[in-house]
Amino acid sequence: MLDSALTSEQRETINRYLQTGDVDLMDCPWPGGLVSGGAAQGKALREALIEEVRQRTKDKQLPDMPALDLVAYTRKKVEPMVNGLFPESEREIVLQVLEKSVVFLTPESFENVLRNMIRKSTAWTVANLYLLSAGAELLSENAPRIVGLSEETTCYVSLEYFHQNDKFADFIVHEAAHIFHNSKRERIGLQATRRREYLLEIDFCQRETFAYACEAYSRILELGKNRKERLDLLTEMEEDEYKIAVDKVDTEKYERALREAVEARNGWKRILSICAPEPLPSQKELMRRAMEELIARRSANSLLDN
Questions:
Q1: What is the three-class DSSP state of 306?
Q2: What span, in angstroms and rounded, lies between the C-alpha atoms of 16 and 171?
Q3: For the chain, percent of residues with pLDDT exceeding 70
Q4: Average pLDDT for residues 198-224, to the nearest whole number?
Q5: Cα(182)–Cα(96) distance, rounded to whole angstroms?
């Protein structure tokens, strides 16, 4: 229930946020301007979101969180991927980031998670992730029905992770793969260059393709103890028409990445290569193109003069 001291404009802003996750930062009905008023608005929205989630889950029973060493468990899951994608000198630094990156959304943790998230739109999405895991009504019919989400160097994962029955799914690996394009190298102590600003350079349009391919490949490696078993698992995926129902996945590249990964000595590198951006042209190539364009223009002008 909303505070009776709120104005009608403030109530409308809160209700719109709860229903859509949208916030108009330039139209803040809290006094104090963009700084103080914006901070007051942010706090009110987050507290309203937390209370709404509480009400929707108060009679729900969430899946149990198994007793485990989460850091060690996460490290074991992501270590093959890190070893395959990074040089030996960088692996331990990356692993130390990833092993502490996973946060499972539980009745004990979700309030602090929502309260401390940087982006209010992301907090709304994570709230729906938690509601979905509890079997509760989502905040909107249009809310994403997801089981994991990454923001910068943190992966938020549903407790459904421990109870789903898809043999080729691993939400931890999937969300960890997104950290590679979310996090800048300098932020975690790695050397950056003009061409290598992020942990890995992944084409913007292929980010989901990369994450899903890493997820499936990690399971193929985990389930298949030798090359034949891994090829059999890949054949099982293809024969069962194992498809990813996500618009942002390039199906052709996803399937090619897995086929080449299973055949390759380092499958992780094949996945990265297929999902990498087009290489930037060298300065020499740029100068060559400029000269060709200049010559073409002069030729066109010469024909006009004649």
A1: coil
A2: 30
A3: 91
A4: 95
A5: 16
Angle between helices 70-85 and 88-98 (to 10 degrees): 150
Q: Give the count of alpha carbons within 13 A of 229, CB side only.
A: 8
Express as a percent the part of the chain with pLDDT over 90: 63
**C-beta neighbour count of 184 within 10 angstroms:** 15
Q: Which residues contact 113 (CB under 8 A, 6 or more apart)?
A: 103, 105, 126, 156
pLDDT in tens, 23-81: 887 788 888 887 888 889 889 999 999 999 999 999 998 878 888 999 999 999 999 99
CA nearest neighbour of 257 among 223, 222, 196, 208? 208
Burial of 296 (0-12, 13-18, 19+ CB in 10 A): exposed
The stretches of 62-154 forming alpha helices (DSSP H) are 70-85, 88-98, 110-116, 120-133
Q: Residue 94: which residues within 8 A CB-CB, separation 6 or more?
A: 82, 86, 188, 190, 199
Q: Residue 109 has which token pair?
A: 């943790």
Nearest CA to 242 out of 251, 231, 250, 253 is that of 251
SS3 content of the chain, % helix, strand, coil (to 5): 60, 5, 35
* Cα separation of the two ends of the chain: 81
> For 154, phi and psi rounded to 5 degrees?
-125, 135
Whether the CB-CB separation of 51 and 17 falls below 8 Å is answered with no
